[in-house]
Design a protein that fits this description.
Length: 242
Amino acid sequence: MDYKRIIEKKNRYESNKFKIDEVTLFSYDKDFEITFTHNSTAIEGNTLTLMETKVLLEDGISIGGKEIHEIYEVINHKKAYRFVKKCILEDRPLDESIVKDIHSILTENIIVGGIYRNQEVRISGAGHVPPAGNDMYFQIKKFFLDLENQSNLNPIELAAWTHAEFVRIHPFIDGNGRTSRLIMNYQLLKKGFLPISISKHDRLGYYSALEEYAVNSDLNIFTDLIANLEEEQLDTYIKLIR
């Protein structure tokens, strides 16, 4: 990761953002909201296509032939992402209360959200087994304490660690992946970076990078993935500067 280059691009974008046409910027932000929602839910197995996601979220037209929980997953993700942006505008640091609220929004009308699991879980195809019982409670409490003491990490590393460590602990019975991708973007937005979307087509590399962290405590591969996506986003928005 060339962090210096990313910072230079971030500063260039921030200094010239006012030169981007407001209508253009709004359309790109709206497109990201739909794309992010589609990718994040599709990674978890949601079968709505990108176009079906767009029709559902923009036009409010229900999609036939889909499970009701898939419809709610998409609608709820949009609500949760907007909640994240609202919290950023209010300058709220990421904490346990916000994470539980995000999960509750994501799982509305599906399961009761914001409550830690008391069951043991396995992640299909993964070598890592999430902690259970008191160990899980201890680790998730430590996670939130550590959030406040990560001054040794730059913002990209912090966003990557927030996602990877949270999903390693897997504190909820369901919705951990969607929650972790939202709190990753929370950290990026909080530090003035652009939000990113991990494509459903890149899920194999994405899962492999998370597994490397969970099993070997190596965050570098996942950090590089996040850094590359952030740089791509910055390049896209810099091109809009008039």
